[in-house]
Every structure is written in C-alpha cells, then in structure tokens.
Amino acid sequence: MAKLYFNYSTMNAGKSTVLLQAAHNYRERGMVPYLMTAQLDNRAGEGRIASRIGIGEDADTFHGDEDLNAKISARLKSGPCACIFIDEAHFLSDSQVWQLARAVDDLGVPIMCYGLRVDFQGQLFPGSTALLALSDEMREIRTICHCGKKATMVIRRDADGNVLREGAQVQIGGNESYVSLCRRHWREAVGDT
C-alpha cells in the first residue's frame, strides 16, 4: 500500500544523504525512482540533489505554483516508477502537499518527502505544517548540537557571524548561514533566557 512519508530534521542532519541512499537502494533492486527538488534551492546546481558528504544526483524540479499530482501522473504514464523522492519538501505549498496525498491515494505510488521542520525563528514551514498533518508516516533524521544533545532548532547567522532574529523565512544557505542547536542553546543564541 502506497504511503506519504515525511522525513524531517534540522539543517545538516543528512536528509539529502538518506534520500540519495534510499533511491540507490531502489535502483539496486531493479526499480526506478523519480527524484524531485525545489527549483528555489540551486546551491548544488539547477535540478541537482547533493549531500555535504559529496554524493549527488540529477533531479526534476518543482516550483510553488506547479500541480504535482499532474506532474507525477505524467511521469507515471511515461514509464515504470516505483517511488517518488522529494528533497527540500519544506518549500512545498499546502496545496502541493494535498496534491501529493492525492497521488498516493489515487495513483498508488509511495512518496517520500525530506525537509526541514522549522525555520530559524522556530516556526513551521508551510510545507512542513501540511506534511505533519497529512503524512501517513513521519521519521525524524537526527543531528546533534555542539553540546551533544539532539538538535531540533537552527539559527541563522549573517556574514559577520551575528545571530539573526528577524528576516524572511526563506533564505537559501548552508553551513555558512545556519547552525543546528538543541532548544536550550537556540534559546541562548536568540536571547530567550
């Protein structure tokens, strides 16, 4: 039975690595996966999913206004597809998550989404909110704070290393901009004592 999965974490937990490994496992067993990533995040190049450990793979892209149920339906009609993998799933809109749920229910294809749960202000992303509500299964991919506790939050830093407390929810970046922390150290960093 097909399901909608949400694999979530904070920055630098290895979400893309886990996605790429899972897609590799499908291929190794003779099955064809379909990979997608947000057009908005092109740090690894347009239409590319890449991990900090050096592995990567080309992928189709999605943008915020695209009908993903129609896109997946078209992909399924073009040939075999055992599973859909979506990286940067926090960039999905609420309606796109509903489209994914419809694809799972009506087209019978499993969809595995990988993305952030919260932003640098501790707020859920719209795509993550919808995935938390609609997913059949959720899995946390864990990383650690500098103190050794599980990191569940992330801070954003400016070019000088100062912690930012305000700004747009979406700012594409990596280790140069974001640091994952446990809640206690996040609170200290943002001045919530």
Layout of strands and helices, then pairs:
Layout: E1 4-9, H1 15-28, E2 33-38, E3 48-50, E4 56-58, E5 60-62, H2 68-77, E6 83-86, H3 94-107, E7 111-116, H4 126-134, E8 137-140, E9 153-157, E10 163-164, E11 178-181, H5 183-190
Parallel strand pairs: 1-7, 1-8, 2-5, 2-6, 6-7
Antiparallel strand pairs: 3-4, 9-10, 9-11
Helix pairs in contact: 2-3, 3-4
Shape, principal axes of CA atoms: globular
Structural class by SSE content: alpha/beta
Task: Spell the H/E element sequence.
Answer: EHEEEEHEHEHEEEEH
Side-by-side strand order of the widest sheet: 5-2-6-7-1-8
- CATH architecture title: 3-Layer(aba) Sandwich
In the predicted model, the low-confidence regions spanning at least 5 consecutive residues are none
Strand content: 15-25%
What is the CA-CA span between the terminal residues? 47 Å
